[in-house]
Amino acid sequence: MILVFAEQRDGILKKAAKEAVSEGKRLSSKLSVPVAAVVMGKGAAGAVDEVKNFGPDKVFLVESAPLDQYSADGFAEAMANVAKEQGATVILFPATTMGVDVAPRVAAKVKAGLVSDITGLEVADGKLLATKPVYSGKAIATVSFKSDIQMVTLRSNVFPLEENPSSPEVVTVDGSGISPMGIAVSTELKEGGKVELAEAAVVVSGGRGMKGPENFPLIEELAELLGGAVGASRAAVDAGWIDHSHQVGQTGKVVSPTVYIACGISGAIQHIAGMGSSKFIIAINKDEDAPIFNVASLGIVGDLFKVVPALTEELKNLN
Predict the structure, then answer these.
(1) How far apart, in Å, do the first and last CA atoms of the chain sit?
(2) Would the pTM of this model clear 0.85, i.e. be above it?
(3) How far apart are CA 15 and CA 117, in angstroms?
(4) 69, 200, 226, 235: which has the highest count of C-beta atoms within 10 A?
(5) Which of these, 133, 14, 12, lies nearest to 4 by C-alpha position?
(6) Rounded Cα gap, residues 47 and 61, in angstroms
(7) Domain range holding 90?
(8) Do the beta carbons of residue 165 and residue 53 sit within 8 Å?
(9) Same domain, residue pair 137 and 241
(10) Structural domain includes residue 185
(11) Sequence-ordered list of residues with C-beta below 8 angstroms from that of 156, at least 6 positions apart, any chain
(12) Are both 167 and 226 inside the same structural domain?
């Protein structure tokens, strides 16, 4: 059986989880084994109908009061229990913050080989072959498994999301015996007003042309007006101008928004690999020979410190 960790928040399936279930369905036909999704956590029951849209043969709903509050060890115990009971030979996780937190713990519990943040997955002689960038994106490694149980975390926005509605059996799993090592006594939720980069419909990214961290508020304001997220090139991140969590590219996040605005980004191949599938790309750069213009839907040759404020002002007037 192929088992997929279908991450959800308050009954809403994460986009990366939809991609993982879709990939599990594709693999199931190649390996001739069923695929099952596992949902857990607060509001999990509300995500069951949504996960059915992506073709699982079975859905395991783990009901457990201790899992209403997220804990990596509690989620790992629940996932490992299902994997052992069902004899899972392939386990897929989305490479989200939660996914990369839980997956290694599950791998240790079920004695599985784990390849993280993969960008490709194929089958050869009944075993998985996983591909992923290595050496800061300068090479692509193909990894095979020696373990009986094979585990991977799938990079977001790389694997196709394919709706394939099914009528799976829904199995309720009693997780009342799960005992996390730590329990959250209280949770304070602060409204940050920020959109998650990997799931944003609009991304405004800054590169070396931003000239320093003091100028990033320019694109932060534009992103906020557009209801989008802020991204960055590796050069900007390496310079310490913005946190790595904003990095777009082979060694950062892969994004596929409706609109991608590149400000002062030259367009290295590693960066383009992380945003090239965007539906509409706007490039702002004073260098007319910058490679980013080769993939841009609309190119603006100009000073970003004049173009971005002008664009921001026009949007304010429209609003």
Answers:
(1) 52
(2) no
(3) 16
(4) 200
(5) 14
(6) 9
(7) 2-174
(8) yes
(9) no
(10) no
(11) 15, 16, 19, 94, 95, 96, 198, 199, 253, 254
(12) no
